[in-house]
Design brief:
Length: about 350
C-alpha cells in the first residue's frame, strides 16, 4: 500500500479527516429553496485545509445533475473564464443553443444562425445563467487562494450584480486572512464584509487519535501522544503521518524530521509575512509559561491598548487561539520552539 498521507498543498490526501459540519453548512445554504445565501469565503492559516474543503464541496455538487461546477484561476480574467467554461460544458451547450445565445463574438464557438452575437461579457453570462435557471440548474464558481487583484475585483462586482438579478450563481472562495481583508476593504466590495466566512480551526483531536491508532496499530497512550504532536493542525496531521508511515509506525523516530518539515513547508513562509511588531508579540507568547495575557504584556512592556490590536490580528491570522479568557496559545504545533529559535538567531 502506498503512503496514504501527502505533503502536497491542495491535493486531497487518501487519509483525510473531513470537516463535515463546515461542508454541510455550505451545502445546506447553497441547496436551499428559496435561495438566501450564494457566497461563502473559507479562510485559515497556511496548511489548514482550505483547498481540501473547497474540493470536497465541489465533488459533492458535481454528483448532482442540477449543478454546474466551474473552477476559475484567480490570476486570469474570471469573467472570460466563466463564459468560456460554461459555453463548453457538456450540459450547457445545448441549453444555450436552444435559448439562441450567440457567443461567436468571443470566439467561444457557440453561434446561432440569424441571431446577433452578444458583445458584452456580463450580458452574455447573465443570458447564460437565465437559460440555466429556466432548466432548474445552478452554477457554482470555485476560486482558490484569492488575492485583491483586478480580475478578482471586477468579478466580485459582477457577481453582486448578477445575484441581484436573482440568477442561480454561487461563489465559494478561499484565501489567507490578509488577502481576504484586502479584498473586502475595496470601496466597491463592502458587501464582502457581510459574506459568511468559514474560518478553519484545528481538526477533531479524537478523530486524529483514532486514525493514527488504526493505521499504525498503536496503543491508546501512543495514539494520543501522536495526536497531541499535531495540535489538530491539518498539515501537521499529514506530515507526521507521512513520516511515521515511512518509518514503519515508529513516530518517536521522526520528531526531528517532523519539526523540520513544519518549518520548511509552512513556518518560514508564515514568519516572513509577519510584521516586526507581530513577531515581537509572538516572542512574548513563546516566552510565557502560562499564556496569561498579563504576563505576556509585562514581558513585552506593553499596555493593554498597545497589545490588543496585534493580539486580534494574530488570532484572525489563525496563529494564536484566544478562546480561553485572559490567555493565549499558539494553534500551530511546536511554533513556540520555532519562534524562540528565530529570536535567538535574530537577536
Amino acid at each position: 500500500m502506498p503512503n496514504p498521507f501527502t505533503l502536497s498543498f491542495g491535493k486531497s490526501p487518501f487519509e483525510n479527516i473531513s470537516r463535515t459540519v463546515q461542508i454541510n453548512t455550505i451545502l445546506d445554504a447553497f441547496r436551499s429553496d428559496p435561495i438566501n445565501q450564494q457566497i461563502f469565503m473559507i479562510t485559515g492559516v497556511r496548511g489548514s485545509g482550505k483547498t481540501v474543503l473547497l474540493t470536497e464541496v465541489e465533488n459533492r455538487l458535481e454528483k448532482d445533475d442540477d449543478w454546474i461546477v466551474v473552477e476559475l484561476n484567480p490570476t486570469a480574467d474570471l469573467l472570460a473564464g466563466l463564459a468560456a467554461k460554461l459555453s463548453s460544458h457538456r450540459q450547457c451547450a445545448e441549453i444555450f443553443r436552444r435559448a439562441k445565445i450567440n457567443l461567436s463574438f468571443f470566439g467561444l464557438g457557440l453561434s446561432v444562425s440569424g441571431e446577433p452575437p452578444i458583445t458584452d461579457l456580463e450580458t452574455a453570462i447573465a443570458r447564460m445563467l437565465e437559460s440555466l435557471k429556466n432548466q432548474g440548474k445552478r452554477v457554482l464558481v470555485a476560486i482558490d487562494e484569492v488575492t485583491s487583484n483586478e480580475y478578482v475585483r471586477v468579478f466580485s462586482v459582477a457577481f453582486q450584480i448578477l445575484i441581484r438579478q436573482e440568477l442561480p450563481l454561487f461563489l465559494l472562495m478561499t484565501g489567507l486572512y490578509e488577502n481576504i481583508e484586502d479584498l473586502q476593504n475595496e470601496k466597491n466590495l463592502t458587501f464582502l464584509y457581510r459574506t459568511p466566512k468559514i474560518k478553519l480551526g484545528p481538526l477533531n483531536m479524537t478523530a486524529i487519535m483514532s486514525r493514527y491508532r488504526s493505521l499504525f496499530h498503536l496503543s491508546d497512550p501512543d495514539a494520543i501522544a501522536m495526536a497531541r504532536l499535531t495540535s489538530g493542525y491539518p498539515f501537521a496531521f499529514q506530515a507526521l503521518g507521512f513520516l511515521t508511515w515511512e518509518h514503519d509506525g515508529k513516530y518517536q523516530e521522526v520528531i526531528d524530521d517532523y519539526r523540520r518539515y513544519l518549518e520548511e513547508y509552512v513556518y518560514d513562509k508564515l514568519w516572513s509575512e509577519l510584521s516586526p511588531k507581530d513577531r515581537q508579540i509572538v516572542y512574548g507568547i513563546a516566552h510565557s509559561e502560562t499564556g496569561e495575557i498579563k504576563e505576556i504584556r509585562e514581558y513585552l512592556n506593553l499596555s493593554s491598548d498597545q497589545f490588543s490590536p496585534y493580539r486580534a490580528r494574530l488570532i484572525r491570522k489563525g496563529i494564536v487561539d484566544g478562546e480561553e479568557r485572559g490567555r493565549l496559545r499558539f494553534t500551530l504545533p511546536l511554533f513556540d520552539q520555532y519562534a524562540l529559535t528565530r529570536q535567538a538567531f535574530e537577536d
